Structure formats: structure tokens, C-alpha cells
Amino acid sequence: MLSSHHSVRLDKWLWAARFYKTRRLAVDAIQKGKVKINGEKSKPARMIKPEDLLSISQGPHHIDLTVTGMADKRGPARVAQTLYQETLESKIRGQKLSLQLKTAAQQVIFDQKKPDQRNRGLSRKAKRGD
Fold first, then answer.
1. 3-state class of 71 per DSSP?
2. Minimal CA–CA distance to 74: which of 30, 127, 11, 5?
3. How far, in whole angstroms, is CA 31 from its chain's centroid?
4. Which segments of 1-130 are extended strands (E)?
5. Are 53 and 65 in contact (CB under 8 A)?
6. 8 DSSP assignment
């Protein structure tokens, strides 16, 4: 789990820290530029070390963190949480986004209603291309 190494590959660390379910997903995210080290794009094999600053984009979420520990194997979630420290600004931004998403989801539920006969007919015509 925790590694005595001074540096670990970026893709392995993201997987071990449980940001991505598989290393393949971590590699894809890195190659798409969704993970930055110290503000710069990187490659999956880039070695990271403690005190590096990472920016990770996952959907609408954007996480900024400081690497505090090294691991090259995936372990329990409690251990994974000790590998990094999220910045205060990132935590605040995440809480605001979470609240916005919850509010938007509630609004959608209240705005939806069952379509009447006319709207169902229009919907069927649109699907058929009439």
C-alpha cells in the first residue's frame, strides 16, 4: 500500500488514491489533459513526488490537491485518503457545486409531469420522423 519510494508513476498513484477505478481510466484522463501536475499537462508515466500539486477534472468536479504520500498499490479507502490533502478553495468549490447539483435535480423532479395524449402523439411522430 504505502510505498517507501520517493516517487511513483502518475497513473499508478491516481489509481491507488482511488480517483479512478482502473489504471486504464487514469491513463485516458491524463492523455485527455484532465490531470495536471503543478499546472502543466503530463504523461501517465510521469513520476510524482510529495508536495506536487495536482488538478483533477472529473465531469463537473474540479479537484485541486497536494500529494502527501506515495503508493503504487491500491489499498483500503482510509489509506488512500492519507495520500493527498485537498486545498481549502477546492473543498469550498466542491460544496457549492454539490449544492447547485442537488437544487437542479430537485427542480427537474418538480418540473416534470406525465405527457398528455396530444404530447405523446407528437413525441411518437417525432421519433418516427413524420
1. strand
2. 11
3. 14
4. 8-9, 35-37, 40-41, 47-48, 53-58, 61-67, 84-86
5. yes
6. E
DSSP letter assigned to residue 20: S
Residue type, 104: A
CB atoms near residue 117 (< 10 Å): 7
CA distance 118 to 94: 42
Predicted structure pTM score: 0.76
What are residue 122's phi and psi, to 5 degrees? -65, -40
**Which residue in this structure is represented by grid cell 495536471?**
36
What average pLDDT does the structure give for the chain? 87
pLDDT in tens, 27-83: 999 999 999 999 999 999 999 999 999 999 998 889 999 999 999 899 999 999 999
What is the maximum span of the chain, computed from C-alpha positions, in angstroms? 68
